[in-house]
């Protein structure tokens, strides 16, 4: 059994006394921890972040000036079985954001620019220009690329108050990060513009068909006005580069990495080295040595 007299309680004053006597060891531990932490940061691949600030456009296909006409004709058009045009600004913004981070858009970018070897460089044999293994399931797919983009590379955030959308691309190559951000915006605008034009062309064909099937003057007048809306919509969509998103602050090549955060890591390393040195000093100098 341990005698209570053999157990000595180390007070804060005792700890301070021991640590003061071995101040050089503590400083050495702190500097050693900081040095090791700093050296470790140079072994970590830096990651750069390219950001773009965009604003969803106010109207679906740049036809905000035609919304009044569409509203006036909506009731009569629905009675005649004609397509109802338009849509709320919130729905259009949600569609634009969903398209920006959609699987189709990402996979098209990866396929068109042959990015699989870039995204999965560890599996790629650059000299042989082939994957390092031919085993089934080894070579990454477009599905894998979309998962990496969604989880590690692309971040989309929306400010609910202003409606502004921030697009962030994190990648070790700052030039590629900026290029991918720009390309995703461009492709989103292009895709939604093409969809709107195709929709209007389909509506025009439908309206012409309805025009040939009715002799009611009121309905024919409504059809003509709806045709005018669709034709003007196509013209405006074709002339609008910023169809879904208007670029407020374009992506630029970042000059400083977002990780590793060397200052923070160095500070944590110094603190950790100090704690380890203090622990070693206290363990090597039991309480009895304090009064000696």
Compile the SSE list and pairings.
Elements: H1 12-21, H2 23-41, E1 48-56, H3 67-79, H4 89-100, H5 103-112, H6 116-119, E2 124-125, E3 130-131, H7 142-153, E4 154-158, E5 165-171, H8 174-213, H9 217-238, E6 245-249, H10 262-284
Q: Quick summary of this structure?
A:
The chain has 292 residues and is of the alpha+beta class.
Helix percent reads: 55-70%
CATH topology of the largest domain: Bacterial polysaccharide co-polymerase-like
In DSSP terms, counting alpha (H) and pi (I) runs of 4 or more, how many helices?
10
Structural class: alpha+beta
Q: Would you tell me the overall average pLDDT?
A: 82
**How many E-type strands?**
6
Beta content comes to 5-15%
* Rg over C-alpha atoms, rounded to the nearest angstrom: 32 Å
CATH class group of the largest domain:
Alpha Beta
Poorly predicted segments: 60-67, 82-86
Shape: elongated
Strand order of the largest sheet: 4-5-1-6
Question: What is the total number of structural domains?
Answer: 2
**Which sequence of SSEs, written as H and E, runs from N to C?**
HHEHHHHEEHEEHHEH
Distance between the termini: 27 Å
**CATH architectural designation of the largest domain:** 2-Layer Sandwich
Explain what this protein looks like in three dimensions.
Strands 4-5-1-6 form a four-stranded antiparallel sheet. Strands 2-3 form a two-stranded antiparallel sheet. The protein is built from ten helices and six strands; from the N terminus they run ααβααααββαββααβα. It is of the alpha+beta class and about 290 residues long. Strand 4 (about 155-160) and strand 5 (about 165-170) form a beta hairpin. It has two domains: about 10-45 and about 260-290, no CATH class; about 50-250, Bacterial polysaccharide co-polymerase-like, CATH 3.30.1890.
């Amino acid at each position: 059994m341990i005698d209570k007299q053999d157990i000595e309680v180390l007070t804060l004053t005792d700890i301070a006394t021991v640590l003061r006597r071995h101040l050089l060891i503590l400083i050495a531990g702190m500097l050693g921890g900081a040095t090791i932490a700093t050296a470790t940061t140079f072994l970590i691949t830096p990651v750069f972040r390219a950001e773009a600030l965009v604003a969803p456009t106010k109207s679906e296909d740049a036809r905000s000036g035609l919304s009044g006409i569409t509203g006036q004709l909506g009731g009569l058009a629905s009675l005649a079985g004609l397509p109802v045009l338009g849509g709320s600004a919130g729905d259009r913004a949600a569609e634009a954001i969903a398209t920006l981070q959609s699987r189709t858009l990402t996979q098209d970018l990866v396929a068109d620019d042959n990015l699989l070897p870039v995204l999965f460089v560890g599996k790629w044999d650059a000299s042989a220009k082939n994957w390092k293994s031919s085993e089934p399931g080894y070579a990454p797919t477009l599905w894998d690329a979309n998962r990496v983009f969604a989880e590690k590379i692309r971040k989309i955030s929306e400010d609910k108050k202003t409606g502004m959308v921030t697009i962030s691309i994190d990648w070790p190559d700052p030039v590629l990060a900026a290029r991918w951000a720009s390309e995703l915006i461009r492709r989103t605008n292009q895709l939604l513009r093409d969809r709107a034009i195709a929709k209007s062309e389909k509506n025009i064909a439908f309206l012409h068909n309805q025009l040939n099937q009715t002799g009611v003057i009121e309905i024919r007048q409504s059809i003509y006005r709806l045709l005018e809306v669709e034709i003007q919509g196509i013209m405006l969509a074709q002339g609008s580069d910023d169809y879904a998103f208007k670029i407020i602050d374009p992506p630029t090549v970042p000059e400083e990495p977002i990780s590793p955060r060397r200052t923070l890591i160095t500070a944590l390393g110094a603190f950790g080295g100090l704690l380890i040195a203090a622990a070693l000093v206290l363990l090597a100098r039991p309480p009895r040595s304090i009064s000696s």
